[in-house]
Amino acid sequence: MKLPENKRNVPSVLTCMDGTEVTDWEIWVTKRRPELLELFKREEYGRLPDMSDVKLQIRVADSRQSDDILEGRAVRKTVEVLAVRKGIHFSFCFVVFIPADAVKPVPAFVTVCNRGIKDSDPARHFLSPFYPVETIVSRGYACAAFRTQEISPDYEEGFTTGFSRLFPEFVTDRPDDAWGAITVWSWAASRIMDYFETEPLIDEKRVALVGHSRGGKTALWGAAQDERFAMAVSSCAGNSGDALSRGAKGERLKDILTRFPYWFCKNYQKYIDKEETLPFDQHMLLGLIAPRLVYTSSKTFDKWADPEGQFESLVQADPVYRLFGIEGLETDRKPLPEQPLYQGRIGHHYKTGNHDMDEYDWNCYLNYADIHL
């Protein structure tokens, strides 16, 4: 297999830690993939605690269809997830919209909403392009969104609230590889998938996990861990998401770990100003999703997210898809703005604009899903 030019001197995605070269998909699945997944858990995002004594209950709290819900075009269901451990309770809700005319299971999008209620309003009083339910449903897809703040606060609070309150013993005795907020948010996304597996009008084999910025990092990490997701969609994820850490031309590890250390495990701190010593880089995160679908997007004015590093990450992940005998990225040349790449199992577009996710982005995601999902 001809490997792409290694412009940023990243470690090879197809070379195991013991030097074994990955020459077919079986070696990838049995050896390389598991060790990379372990590396990301131990060194970057952190691992969940033992969940064996956590009891989960998922129930539909409300289900209705009326003219005031997308003019009758959707069934809206409110679902509650309850987790109980040693008498401590934690719960969160999410809302699902399903096309009212669905006569067979439809594909779906799960959105990681790292913004306020205006960008995920279940009543649809606020029509935000960040989460255009009306467009998604009109295209024949179901959708659900959860707000990250309800799962784990997006500020440094010592892992004492939200999901983390289930494990008070970790407050004073916290291992260096213990979970960060991104791992907890990805856990929540998987609970929505649990529900989808029980919902007869949703095809759980055709579900995409979507996120923007920190939500994009979550979508990639969530899909890497949970192979039930058929597709990961990442908008402007940047550093520690889809952009390479080596040779970063925008945000660096020092920047992100100074502002948002709680997104990651403590072990990640040791690579500040030492990105070249990382035993992995973010192209390997994208490779963990293979042979499933992954779609990323970047913006022309979002230099902090390093659009060049984001695209180069896709180029370096492509060889994993080739192991499976399928096309990953259709070209190794970064596209011009508003020229989406739809053909391979790795999709991408580069849009004129700032750090955001809008209806143009969503229409591209939907176009790509129409072809592949």
Automatic annotation (TrEMBL):
Molecular function terms from GO: carboxylic ester hydrolase activity
Is Hydrolase tagged as a keyword?
Answer: yes
Xref: SUPFAM superfamilies: alpha/beta-Hydrolases
Limits of the 4-O-methyl-glucuronoyl methylesterase-like domain = 137-325
Q: Which UniProt keywords apply?
A: Hydrolase, Serine esterase, Signal
Provide the transmembrane region boundaries: none
- Please name the Gene3D superfamilies in this protein's record: alpha/beta hydrolase
Q: What is this protein called?
A: Acetylxylan esterase
